[in-house]
Design brief:
CATH topology: YggX-like
CATH class: Mainly Alpha
Helix content: 40-55%
CATH architecture: Orthogonal Bundle
Number of domains: 1
Distance between the termini: 39 Å
CATH superfamily: Fe(II) trafficking protein YggX
Strand content: 5-15%
Largest sheet: 2 strands, antiparallel
Shape: globular
Number of strands: 2
Order of helices and strands: EEHHH
Strand order of the largest sheet: 1-2
Length: 93
Amino acid sequence: MARTVHCVYLNQEAEGLDFQLYPGEIGKRIFDSISKKAWAAWQHKQTMLINEKKLNMMNAEHRKFLEEQMVHFLFEGGDVQVEGYVPPKEEEL
């Protein structure tokens, strides 16, 4: 049976993660209050950030920057600005 959490990102009940995907206190917070859907949205933004800023995950400063962006995105309602990215326009009906 799927876990349900109150997702702070979506502000609704949603399917929770199957296990803790991120280490430490932040990881526990994510596991307890972030849904699979919200985590997938973050993963998409994270990939864009890593590619745009050419981040190296072996670099502690780069990992710290990504963690700050993740907390901002998931828990503080902030969007992640990716320089040079223009979201596709929705088709008009």
